[in-house]
Amino acid sequence: MSTTEPAPPADAAPASPGADRTWFVVPLFNEGEVVGDVIRDLRSRYPLVVCVDDGSHDDSARIAEEAGALVVRHPYNMGQGAALKTGIDYALRDPEMAQIVTFDSDGQHQVEDAAQMIAKREAEGVDIVLGSRFLDSRTKPGLLKRIVLRGAVWYTNLTTGVKLTDAHNGLRVIGREACERMAIEQNRMAHASEIVEEIGRHKFTVAEHPVHILYTDYSRSKGQSVLNSVNIVIDMFFR
């Protein structure tokens, strides 16, 4: 595993909630086409971004680096859960870190949603704020994905005792203490259910916040929506 230092954060807007104490953890795998714009947009408001390149075969890591992210490289593809764990462990090295945000590298997450979630966590004093696609009508998943996500919510609520409206949303704000105590051992997509299980096990306080997940032509061209639905079903079956 290797790291490079980020560019100076002079372009970040200090008015953004928690900008000086929030690390964004961005897993990265073969997103060279879009990751530069994602990182530049993110760093226009939040300077502390660690991008975990999970064995990409393209120039994703270089592009993320040039856009101003600190880049940590996995020597081979280990999965999104492993990338999140690496990024969280890196952020914990900063003694001033109050919270991390898990943020996708493919352009589906919105910086403004993350900012509102950070403000909500700090105002309400909860351990974790989770994004939800189902608290408003902005997100437009396909029929198959909607059915699978609703099934995942029902299953997760039943098995973890944590009542959520969206159990597999990758936009999360996690406070420092929760980061220190939470165990993420599932390397691949099962980490999403594992995080909810950890919330229930540790009795972390949690709030949800409406977010807009943008299913773009780019993400659809990669088959991510359908693939993620399949991954969620497999995750539920084996767990």
Keywords:
single chain; 239 residues; alpha/beta; Spore Coat Polysaccharide Biosynthesis Protein SpsA, Chain A; eight-stranded mixed beta sheet; 9 helices; 41% helix; 16% strand; globular
Report on the structure:
The chain has 239 residues and is α/β, with parallel strands linked by helices. The chain has one domain (2-238): Alpha-Beta Complex (Spore Coat Polysaccharide Biosynthesis Protein SpsA, Chain A), CATH 3.90.550.10. The chain is built from 9 helices and 8 strands. It has helices at 35-43, 60-66, 80-91, 111-124, 143-160, 176-181, 191-202, 217-221, 224-238, and strands at 2-4, 22-28, 49-54, 70-74, 99-102, 128-132, 172-175, 206-210. An 8-stranded mixed beta sheet has the order 1-4-3-2-5-7-6-8, with helices on both faces. Strand 2, helix 1 (35-43) and strand 3 form a beta-alpha-beta unit. Helix 5 (143-160) packs parallel to helix 9. The longest helix is centred in the middle third of the chain and has 18 residues, at 143-160. The chain is globular.
Distance separating the two termini = 30 Å
Give the DSSP E fraction (strand runs of 2 or more residues): 15-25%
The value of Rg in angstroms is: 16 Å
CATH-assigned homologous superfamily: Spore Coat Polysaccharide Biosynthesis Protein SpsA, Chain A
The gist of it:
This protein has about 240 residues and is an alpha/beta fold. The protein contains nine helices and eight strands.
Topology (elements, then pairings):
Blueprint lengths: L1 E3 L17 E7 L6 H9 L5 E6 L5 H7 L3 E5 L5 H12 L7 E4 L8 H14 L3 E5 L10 H18 L11 E4 H6 L9 H12 L3 E5 L6 H5 L2 H15 L1
Parallel strand pairs: 2-3, 2-5, 3-4, 6-8
Antiparallel strand pairs: 1-4, 5-7, 6-7
Helix pairs in contact: 5-9
